[in-house]
Structure formats: C-alpha cells, structure tokens
Automatic annotation (TrEMBL):
The keyword Transmembrane applies. Keywords: Membrane, Transmembrane, Transmembrane helix. The chain crosses the membrane at residues 61-88, 109-128, 165-187. This is Rod shape-determining protein MreD. It comes from Synechococcus sp. SB0676_bin_10.
C-alpha cells in the first residue's frame, strides 16, 4: 500500500488524465451550439493552458505529447498538432513558479488561449502546405484528412489555406471565449489537489 503522502500526487495525475481524456473526446464530439462558423473550440488548448500553468514545463510537455499522440492515433494524415501543443506547453509551463500556482486573470486566459489555438492551427496548416505538390498546386493524397478527395475535386492549396484561416480564426475566437470558464475551473481544481499534496 502506498504511503498517505503519495495519494494526492496520484489523485492529481488521475484527475489530470481524466480531464485530458474528456478534452480529447470533446475534440471529436463537441456540442453543435459551441461552434462558430462550423469550427469547434480547441479543447486540447483549453486543457493544456491550465495544466502547463499549474504543473510546469515538464508536466506540460508530457501532457502535450500524450494528447498529441493520442489525437494522432485517431485521425488520418501526416499533419499533427503535436508541434504547436509542445511549443505552448513549454511557453506556458515556464510561466510557473516552483511551489506556487499563479492564477492569471480571465482576460489573460482568454488571450493566451486564443493565441494558442491560432498557433496550433497555423502549425497544422504549415505542415499541410509543405506537403502540397508545388508543380500542380494540389495537396498530395494522404497529406491530411480526406485530402485525396479534396485534391481529386480540384481544390488548390491556396483555397484550402484560405478556408483553413477562416476556420482557425473561428476556432480561436470560440476557444478564447471559453478559456476563462474552463481554465479557471481546471486551475482551481488542480490548485486544491496541489494544496492537499503539500499539506
């Protein structure tokens, strides 16, 4: 049996893992009333922001890698949000102080989540753009979800990029709108668990 001091750490990891699983599932099953112009919020960014801000860069990078790889196993294509999530985890995690969780203002959470969502979407679009065939302007088959159908329909990389920017901006706005609520609730939960861990 584990010592009593080890239980809160296990509870923190368990609750963090459970909330990460919910964020991953919401990435695919987001309610329709939370969408803006067909784009749902970036639930992974909404989870990663408070996790990295409360647990630091190492735990943030671990969470970003686990979520990014889990999302990769559920989608088709070569483009991955892992690079953007890892950058955000490192940046947000470095804003923590050892032994103290700083709760940012709701406005700061909204701005950071909006910019974070844009960064993740732009890194995915850059990967898709780099995979485009420069001779024909078409996206190579296998470069993304249903990209072979898109290329067969005659869509050019420029059109996909323009549609991607509109979707990225819509997703960033919805993510920023939800960040104060979701981020504050998760930060409060992890602060309570961290407080019980340190006595």
């Amino acid at each position: 049996m584990k010592p009593a001091a080890a239980w809160p750490q296990q509870a923190l990891v368990g609750v963090g893992g459970a909330t990460a699983l919910v964020a991953l599932l919401l990435s695919f099953l987001s309610p329709g009333w939370l969408r803006l112009a067909g784009a749902s919020p970036n639930w992974l960014v909404l989870w990663l922001l408070p996790w990295a801000r409360s647990q630091g860069p190492i735990a943030g990078l671990a969470g970003a890698c686990i979520l990014g790889i889990a999302l990769e196993t559920m989608t088709i294509g070569v483009a991955t949000p892992l690079y953007g999530l890892a950058l955000l985890a490192w940046f947000w995690g470095r804003q923590t102080r050892p032994g103290k969780i700083i709760r940012p203002s709701p406005t700061a959470l909204a701005i950071q989540a909006t910019l974070g969502s844009l960064l993740v979407d732009v890194t995915v679009m850059m990967q898709l753009r780099l995979l485009a065939d420069p001779r024909s302007g078409h996206v190579q088959p296998g470069a993304g979800i249903l990209s072979s159908d898109v290329a067969a329909a005659g869509w050019f990389g420029r059109e996909i990029t323009n549609a991607g920017f509109h979707g990225a901006i819509a997703a960033a706005l919805v993510t920023g709108f939800l960040a104060p609520l979701v981020g504050t609730l998760l930060l409060r939960l992890w602060c309570q668990l961290d407080r019980t861990r340190h006595g």
